[in-house]
Design brief:
Blueprint (H helix, E strand, L loop, with lengths): L3 H22 L3 H8 L1 H18 L5
Helix pairs in contact: 1-2, 1-3
């Protein structure tokens, strides 16, 4: 179901999410917001590459 690349992308999303929450609640609000922006960016790249894999433009 999940490939190794999918798990690494999700791991990156979770790490980014928790680091941004940690920074936000420890008073570093701008750094927390900056890190929180990474979450949708990582997911977007993951979706893009998954769609290209499905369409056959990228080979395993």
């Amino acid at each position: 179901m999940f490939k190794k690349a999918d798990l690494f992308l999700l791991l990156g999303v979770f790490i980014s999410f928790f680091v941004s929450g940690y920074l936000w609640f420890n008073g570093q609000r701008l750094e927390g917001i900056f890190t929180a922006i990474w979450v949708p960016a990582i997911l977007g790249f993951g979706i893009y590459f998954k769609l290209m894999l499905i369409r056959g433009r990228i080979h395993d």
